[in-house]
């Protein structure tokens, strides 16, 4: 009969065999602290553990013959309580004592492990206490906004960026962005703003005269033109065919004799001109000219048309006049039931019009290729393991289109680029944002607004109509090691109007 043996701590150490010459039981030998049991008794111990686990002792109390208290499963696959291999009381007590010793050994080993863990934690605690105080985080000297300029960024820790731009009429001399290095210095000198002659670029249109101001230029417009660059027709336009002598714009006054004195008056929208009674005439009040003067509120959002005794407002092509008769609202041509863009392109509504766009992924080169995953996004196919240049190309490229009015007040945030927070991301310096391309970098800065978000900020006023492009980048770093970058291509359509 095979004997299974354990050390006092419960670990199995050897297996032996004994010949059974008579009787159904074999006394378990004891040598060098070993506990041995025949397989049938081991099976009973497993049943005993099941009893302890379930708390249902009655399930395992079969009807036994005289002198037999429990029966063991013989291993043949039959009834576990068959009449063969009954255990007597002494065998059962021996099995229970063995199980108690095994549990006691396991308990001792567990207690010893706890003591060792406590000892090691105490040693580690003492070692940490002996270490000096944490060094303060490395930071760079504080930076100020240059005179006649603006500074973006208020954190001066390692890897943080600060951006600079100048007010209208000034040009930035020096770097537009600096980064705090681990040695506590910036990557460049603080820039300054230099006055420039904006009139040298001849910004005034339609014969306007440019006059230099303290902080910006001003256009003096010829008759019939208005706007910051004389780009609009003046709001004093009259209907076609109307002239100052048009009878519709002149009326006879209403006069009455009161106590030998003649009193004359005019209808609303007309004023009395002339002094002598015979020379008096009611002349139309040109509200468009009156309220078009400097400092007065505008009667119309766009064009004011003088009419006899009143006025009316008109909106440019691509806009509709609202119910108040003064305001203009852009017409969204892209929602028109008529197809406005060729098949394969997408319609982007702009101020007073629309644009048809068809974003395309970069062409493949070598082992680098991109696939279009949505109408406005491309993703790079997996790079070969040994291709370092491939991994430094954008992992994703997205396309975004914005429509802006002219003369938008700055600074203003136009676009946000963010990533979702993920477990294991090492902190606020794991992402870096910047402007990496486009045709008008001087109009924008890119700065981090929080741990996971970068903002594209317009810092220079834009005059329309014009189209600008700017490429912004978000790079991911893990322990200052480059992981991937994502590029957003932003196209901005500037309307010719300031509404």
TrEMBL record:
Q: Which domain of life is it from?
A: Eukaryota
Q: Give residue ranges for domain Sushi.
A: 138-195
Name the cystine pairs: 166-193, 221-230
Stretch forming the signal peptide: none
SMART domains per the UniProt record, alphabetical:
CCP, EGF, EGF_CA
Q: What does this protein do?
A: An adhesion molecule that interacts with extracellular matrix molecules in developing teeth and may play important roles in differentiation and maintenance of odontoblasts as well as in dentin formation.
Keyword terms: Calcium, Cell adhesion, Coiled coil, Disulfide bond, EGF-like domain, Extracellular matrix, Glycoprotein, Heparin-binding, Repeat, Secreted, Signal, Sushi
Q: Which Gene Ontology terms cover its molecular function?
A: calcium ion binding; heparin binding
CDD domains in the record, alphabetically? CCP (cd00033), EGF_CA (cd00054)
The family classification in the record reads: Belongs to the fibulin family.
One Pfam match: cEGF
The primary location reported for this protein is secreted
The Gene Ontology biological process annotation of the record reads: cell adhesion
Q: Subunit notes for this chain?
A: Interacts with heparin, FBLN1, FN1 and DSPP. Preferentially binds dental mesenchyme cells and odontoblasts but not dental epithelial cells or nondental cells. Binding requires a heparan sulfate-containing receptor on the cell surface as well as an integrin.
Could you identify this protein by its name?
Fibulin-7
Location in or out of the cell: Secreted, Extracellular space, Extracellular matrix
> Which residue ranges does the record assign to the EGF-like domain?
195-231, 284-329
From which lineage does this chain's organism come?
Answer: Eukaryota, Metazoa, Chordata, Craniata, Vertebrata
Q: Which organism is it from?
A: Callorhinus ursinus (Northern fur seal)
């Amino acid at each position: 009969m095979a004997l299974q043996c354990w050390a006092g701590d419960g670990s199995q150490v050897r297996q032996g065999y004994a010949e059974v010459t008579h009787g159904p039981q074999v006394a378990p030998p004891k040598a060098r602290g070993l506990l041995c049991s025949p397989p049938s008794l081991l099976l009973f111990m497993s049943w005993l553990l099941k009893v302890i686990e379930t708390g249902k002792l009655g399930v395992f109390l079969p009807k036994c013959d005289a002198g037999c208290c429990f029966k063991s499963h013989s291993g043949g696959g039959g009834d576990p309580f068959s009449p063969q291999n009954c255990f007597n009381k002494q065998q059962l007590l021996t099995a229970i004592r063995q199980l108690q010793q095994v549990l006691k050994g396991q308990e001792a080993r567990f207690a010893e492990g706890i003591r060792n863990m406590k000892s090691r934690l105490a040693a580690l605690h003492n070692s940490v206490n002996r270490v000096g105080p944490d060094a303060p985080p490395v930071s760079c000297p504080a930076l100020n906004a240059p005179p006649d300029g603006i500074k973006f960024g208020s954190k001066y820790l390692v890897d943080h960026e600060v951006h600079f731009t100048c007010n209208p009429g000034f040009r930035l001399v020096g770097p537009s962005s600096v980064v705090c290095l681990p040695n506590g210095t910036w990557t460049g000198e603080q820039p300054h703003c230099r006055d420039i002659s904006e009139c040298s670029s001849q910004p005034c249109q339609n014969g306007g005269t440019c006059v230099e101001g303290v902080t910006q230029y001003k256009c003096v417009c010829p008759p019939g033109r208005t706007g910051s660059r004389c780009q609009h027709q003046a709001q004093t336009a009259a209907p076609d065919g109307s002239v100052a002598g048009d009878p519709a714009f002149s009326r006879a006054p209403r006069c009455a004799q009161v106590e030998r004195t003649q009193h004359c008056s005019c209808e609303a929208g007309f004023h009395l001109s002339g002094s002598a009674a015979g020379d008096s005439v009611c002349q139309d009040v040109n509200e468009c000219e009156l309220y078009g003067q400097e400092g007065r509120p505008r009667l119309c959002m766009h064009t004011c048309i003088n009419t006899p005794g009143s006025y009316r407002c008109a909106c440019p092509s691509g806009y509709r006049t609202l119910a108040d008769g003064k305001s203009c609202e852009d017409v969204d041509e892209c929602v028109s039931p008529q197809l406005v863009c060729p098949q394969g392109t997408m319609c982007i509504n702009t101020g007073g019009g629309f644009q048809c766009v068809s974003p395309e992924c970069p062409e493949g080169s070598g082992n680098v290729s991109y696939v279009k995953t949505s109408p406005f996004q491309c993703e790079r196919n997996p790079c070969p393991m040994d291709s370092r240049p491939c991994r430094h190309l954008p992992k994703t490229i997205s396309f975004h289109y914005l429509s802006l009015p002219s003369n938008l007040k700055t600074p203003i945030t136009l676009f946000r680029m963010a990533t979702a927070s993920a477990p294991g991301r090492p902190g606020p310096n794991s992402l870096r944002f910047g402007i990496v391309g486009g045709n008008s970098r001087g109009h924008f800065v890119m700065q981090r607004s929080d741990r996971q978000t970068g903002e594209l900020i317009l810092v220079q006023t834009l005059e329309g109509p014009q189209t600008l492009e700017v490429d912004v980048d978000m790079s991911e770093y893990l322990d200052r090691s480059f992981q991937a970058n994502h590029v957003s291509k932003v196209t901005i359509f500037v309307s010719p109007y300031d509404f």
